[in-house]
Amino acid sequence: MRLPLIFFLFLTLSLASCAQQSIPKVLEQLNDNTVDYISVEDLHEIQAPLLLDAREKNEFEVSHLQNAVWVGYDDFDINKVLQQLPNKEKPIVVYCSIGVRSEDIGERLKRAGYTNVKNLFGGIFEWKNKGYPVYNTNQQETEKVHAFSKYWGRFLTNAEKVYAKKTPNPPE
Questions:
Q1: In a 10 Å sphere around its CB, with 0-12 CB exposed, 13-18 middle and 19+ buried, how is residue 1 labelled?
Q2: pTM of the entire structure?
Q3: Strand pairing of 117-120 and 134-135?
Q4: pLDDT tens digits along 63-92
Q5: Is CATH 3.30.1490.20 what the domain over 22-156 is classified as, yes or no?
């Protein structure tokens, strides 16, 4: 009888602590601060940054920041970036859903010699939560944002959440 009660208390406390988390708390727990953050507001002050989307292709296709270039996470290829962006001083802002995957990609860019790399604090979720526009593959403004999963989707509060599954890459 005592074991189920302990399990129930543990489960209740775990769910309560998860419900109280916020984007800043999650980033503090999961990131190492190896790539400087840039806020959604400060992003507007950078002169012509290159926006790199570090989410999966199906997430990017639902919506992305205007003029963002998809580089992916699982499929990220630093050699493609080196070919497409030889200027290693150009301002680069990497983003994902909230800023965890983009930190990893930002680290890889920095190791490759890029000197002006920032991680968008809160990612596309924070961008949309603050009322900024996102665009679909036809470059039309949309209210839809891929929320990745129900767990991560709770941090997206100002968009229509989409939970599309990852589409496999076609065989070559």
A1: exposed
A2: 0.84
A3: unpaired
A4: 999 999 999 999 999 999 999 999 999 999
A5: no
